[in-house]
Amino acid sequence: MIKFFKVLLLTASCGLPAFAQAAGFPQRPVEVVITSTPGSTSDVLTRLIGKDFAETTGQPLVVVSKASASGLVGSSQVARARPDGYTLLLGGNTTMAANVHLFKSLPYDPLKDLAPVTLATVNPLLLVVRSDLPVKSVQDLIDYAKKHPGELNYGAGNSGGKVSVALLKSLAGIDATEVPYKGASQAALDLVAGRLQFMIVDPVVVDSFVKEGKLRPLAVTTKERLDSMPDLPTMEEAGVKGYEYASWLGYFAPRGTPDEVITSLHDALVKALNSKEATDYFERMGMIRKTTTPTDLTTFVQDQIATWGKLVNIADLQPQ
Fold it and tell me: CDD domains this protein is in (predicted)?
């Protein structure tokens, strides 16, 4: 999985496309449907690049939050939307890959109903605990969980939060209870409030809590350490052999959107994602920018669907 990310990074770095605007597009704001709550990575990211997008196209990006279980509502809404380029989905591993394996029947088809525009980011996740929990390392958490079987609660606001912890439980042989949320930011608030003991989450969601000392990061989920947190070990370095996980985000339009409109959206979004403001933000948050062509994103999603089949099997999750 990570090797594929690296190939995309090399592809994206070969050159930035010039912005090519389809005739008459856009003439009004472009709505971006996110399937998480306000304050989530999807929300912050889209608002961040919205300024540059507006400068390029003359129209703003408007974030529309449709938080729901596994993103079914927002994804279905965009899949059914008019294919004119004015409604986009900021999809990711949950909506575009995991749901294929986590649901017996989906109200949309990620490959048939949605048209790729560009990948945006690959996001290593953080394993974090409440700062008042007597846990200073991943091994401490494993030992604590084994001493208190079934007593630990963790929050999951999306499939990433669900599967990343399920993978930890499987590989480390621990027991803990999942508490589902509509979004990771809500789960993080409950973690700080003491209703949960730990979670695995996007760095941006818990950044302020970590800086305030309310949450303690224990490890990063990827095979490589984060440049922004060089002293934080990977899960494998911390003793969980074979552990590797990263989430991702990308922009999608309804299938049937004209090619010239897809090109306009792609060029404007890639330009915004490569802006200095976005670059500084990604570095600060430990996020990895990865932009692609629509064709490469199609291949990436197909690869991710296959990868998630393996992850769901390892985590022993049954489709609903």
Answer: PBP2_Bug_TTT
